[in-house]
Design a protein that fits this description.
The protein is built from 2 helices and 19 strands. It has 242 residues and is α/β, with parallel strands linked by helices. The chain has 2 domains: 43 residues; 197 residues. The strands form 2 sheets. A 10-stranded mixed sheet has the order 1-4-7-3-9-11-13-19-15-16, with no helix packed on it. Strand 5 and strand 6 form a beta hairpin.
Length: 242
């Protein structure tokens, strides 16, 4: 009888330790995850520049960036926030002295064409940078780039985007829009009474989640509220029309 009691006590003690060990392990795992997340966030360099807008035309050269976000500004200023994983590798610059156009660019602070750095640049993508640009409404914005992801948070103005490869997310399209790219995906939500002109030689066109059989999609609307155009070789286009 005494032996059975001892065995029961031992069984209870051993099984009581298991939840404690599991809880301790989960807590330790969460702590490690939080530590790595904090190190990543604090390792990012944040640069912010602001400029009063004098012109209606804005050109953005996105070379050196991996992602670009366009947002609506609540005042008459353009604000650029650059998040850079590698500190001191980028500089934000403005140039507003050419034909009344505000030019925005991001300069790399090292020479990628030097042999040693160039190899790392190609294999590791040292720049790893994202820019968030707030722009006043009703401006004409032109974006140039190579391989980049572009996200317009329903910008209330006209957009022209010229890139080689990438995903372009326009969300709600509020102005005249032209997207030209070789490869990637274009997403957008159009207003009623929009003129649509899409041509992609080898890509897919989807309207309201229905795949269009042809590689050309065109709708001409009288008194259109906006014109939406896409030109591509291999890109896919996914549209929602209200």
């Amino acid at each position: 009888m005494k032996q059975n009691v001892n065995n029961n006590i031992l069984y209870y003690y051993n099984n009581r330790k298991k939840p404690l060990l599991r809880g301790f392990f989960c807590f330790k795992l969460q702590l490690i995850t939080l530590l790595f997340t904090s190190l990543f966030l604090f390792s990012q360099e944040k640069l912010i520049k602001t400029r009063e807008i004098k012109f209606n035309d804005i050109e953005i050269n996105s070379d050196g960036l991996d992602d670009l976000v366009i947002e609506n500004s609540t005042d008459n200023q353009i604000t650029i926030m650059l998040l850079d994983e590698q500190p001191n590798t980028h500089t934000i610059f403005f140039d507003d002295e050419i034909n009344g156009v505000l030019k925005v660019g991001f300069k790399l602070n090292f020479d990628v064409y030097k042999e040693q750095i160039f190899r790392k640049y190609i294999t590791k993508r040292l720049q790893r940078a994202k820019a968030i640009i707030k722009i006043p409404k009703n401006k004409n914005v032109i974006i140039y780039g190579k391989t980049i992801g572009i996200n317009s948070n329903s910008y209330k103005g006209n957009l022209k985007i010229y890139i080689d490869k990438g995903n372009v997310r326009l969300n709600k399209v509020n102005g005249n829009t032209l997207v030209t790219l070789f490869l990637g995906n274009v997403y957008g939500q159009l207003r009623k009474n929009s003129t649509i002109n899409i041509k992609t030689n080898k890509g897919e066109i989807s309207i309201n989640k229905t795949k269009h059989k042809e590689h050309l999609y065109k709708i001409l609307t009288k008194n259109a509220v906006s014109n939406f155009n896409v030109r591509s070789i291999n890109a896919n286009v996914f549209l929602i029309t209200e």
